[in-house]
Amino acid sequence: MALEESSRRRGYVDAGELERLNRIRRDFVANVSHELKTPATSLKLLAESLEQAIEEDPEQARMFAAQLRKETERLARLITDLLDLARLESEERSEYPETVDLRGVVMSVLARMRRVAREKGIELRWKRFGRASEYTVRGNETQLASMLTNLVDNAVKYTPPGGRVEVTGGSENGEVFIQVSDTGIGIPPEKLPRIFERFYRVDKARSKATGGTGLGLSIVKHVVENHGGRVTVESTPGEGSTFTVHLPRASGRGG
């Protein structure tokens, strides 16, 4: 794993640390195996059901085909998230040469998410503070877009119809911050410390129903940390959650 490799490059691996890393690796392999086995089993059963129903009951066959497509899409999302996370974990934090207009990235993400929010009856707002030039950071635009998409997508998924998701941006103390707040179901306080772990789900049944892979927030954390920033969360069950990302502002740009 990336941490083990990093330790070896430094020339030592403590025995206790090595055991901890091996345990993390075993848990990861077990989790990935389980997460891949579940949709694979569903696909097999659905394909068999479709084969049996295709001539005897065309209406039921169409239902099986729709479910087959849904499970295939979920499996594809899981594989994509696993590849993204593996790439992020293998990267060491570095100084990115390119500057990125984070406000522009937010605008693109919101434009893509508006249709989903509208179909669910959720109001999606953007509130900006400060000048546009104050949103410049150094980084990887693709990774930053993935991070923000995960946060907004989660907020829309876990907010009931009639609710609101608000994205706020600004700049203070040499940092750019983006805040994603929702009026959703919220997260119990005792579960907040674990929400950025791989495959951790606050509500497994609800996560599966919404198509979540259990990797989105882990990807968010790695992207933010690889850019030298931090992510925090505040939440109240039944009232909603607020995720705040802080990233270093590119020096010499804007106020």
Automatic annotation (TrEMBL):
Class of the enzyme per the UniProt entry, highest EC level: transferase
InterPro entries from the UniProt entry: HATPase_C_sf (IPR036890), HATPase_dom (IPR003594), His_kinase_dom (IPR005467), HisK_dim/P_dom (IPR003661), HisK_dim/P_sf (IPR036097), Sensor_HK_Regulatory (IPR050736), Sig_transdc_His_kin-like_C (IPR004358)
SMART domains: HATPase_c, HisKA
Domain Histidine kinase: 31-251
Superkingdom in the source lineage: Bacteria
Enzyme Commission number(s) of this protein: 2.7.13.3
Reactions catalysed, as given in the entry: ATP + protein L-histidine = ADP + protein N-phospho-L-histidine
Signal sequence coordinates: none
Subcellular location as annotated: Cell membrane
Keywords: Kinase, Membrane, Phosphoprotein, Transferase, Two-component regulatory system
Co-factor(s): a divalent metal cation
GO cellular component: plasma membrane
Ligase in keyword set: no
GO molecular function: calcium ion binding; phosphorelay sensor kinase activity
PANTHER family: HISTIDINE KINASE 1, TWO-COMPONENT HISTIDINE KINASE
Name of the protein: histidine kinase
Organism, as annotated: Rubrobacter xylanophilus
